[in-house]
Amino acid sequence: MAITRKNQLKEMTKEALQNKLKELEEEKSREKALIKTNKKPSNPGKYKEIKKLIARIKTIHKTTKKPANPPNK
Fold first, then answer.
1. Does residue 57 sit within a domain?
2. Alpha-carbon distance 23 to 60, whole Å?
3. Structural domain count of the chain
4. In angstroms, rounded to a whole number, what is the distance separating the alpha carbons of residues 55 and 32?
5. CATH no. for residue 52?
6. Is residue 2 over pLDDT 70?
7. Beta-carbon contacts of residue 3 (< 8 Å; ≥ 6 apart)
8. Mean per-residue pLDDT of the chain
9. Is residue 53 in a domain?
10. Under 8 Å CB-to-CB from 25, ≥6 apart: which residues?
């Protein structure tokens, strides 16, 4: 898995972000299964990096949404 930078994520479309998120969730579950079964993962820091990348994608997705009803003051 290559490192994905924040600016690369911002340039992606919503569909591409959703696909990337789905792919990362599957990869995260595989890595977690390796950890839970006491098998040594190929890269010990991969699970942590996947979790951070998922959080970044969710944050970008949340900040790019337009508010449904802007407050009127």
1. yes
2. 17
3. 1
4. 16
5. 1.10.287
6. no
7. 49
8. 86
9. yes
10. 54
**Burial status of residue 9 (CB atoms within 10 A of its CB: 0-12, 13-18, 19 or more):** middle
* Separation between Cα atoms, residue 61 and residue 40, nearest integer Å: 33
Assigned domain for 72 exists: no
Which secondary structure element, helix H or strand E, spans residue 13, and what is its range? none
pLDDT tens figures, 57-66: 999 988 877 6
Q: CA-to-CA distance for 52 and 38, rounded, in angstroms? A: 22
Query: What single-letter DSSP state applies at residue 10?
Result: H
Tell me whether residue 69 is in a domain.
no
Q: What does pTM read for this prediction?
A: 0.77
Number of H helices, E strands in the chain: 3, 0
Residue 46 in 3-state DSSP?
helix
**12, 19 in Cβ contact below 8 A?**
no
Domain range enclosing 30: 6-64
